[in-house]
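User: Here's a chain of 145 residues. Predict its fold as tokens.
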Amino acid sequence: MPADADPYAPLPLFVYGTLRPGLANHARFCADVAPVRRAAVAARLYRMPDGFPVIVPDPHGRVLGELLAFPDPAAALRRIDPLEDVDPLAAARPEARYQRRVILAQPLDTGLPEPAWAYVSDAARVVDATEIPGGDWIAVGGRGE
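Assistant: Prediction complete.
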């Protein structure tokens, strides 16, 4: 997608784990969020051995979360990227758990897919992880241990 060329393109952020409203990192990193919309993405959700969630894009999966819109999306991403150990201006590091990518999210209220940022992983990183049935971190009591 063209937004990948701009690592701070003004898109909403799809969150599925500790950045979701009411969970461990939301208040600290997302206090200035404007609208919050329930959404889903084509991915699979996993709990890593250290207790944190990751998603891996997969056209046959479904992960629930929220789309967050920020008044200053670039400032929000610069604040959240270090939490996720992401530097979009640096070369990809093989040991990095997440990459921030543009994916298609489907807001549950409209059903119309739209591009959004998300912190995603790849299948090679989830070898020792546990897949979360139903793709909803909150439903399984996930907080971000």
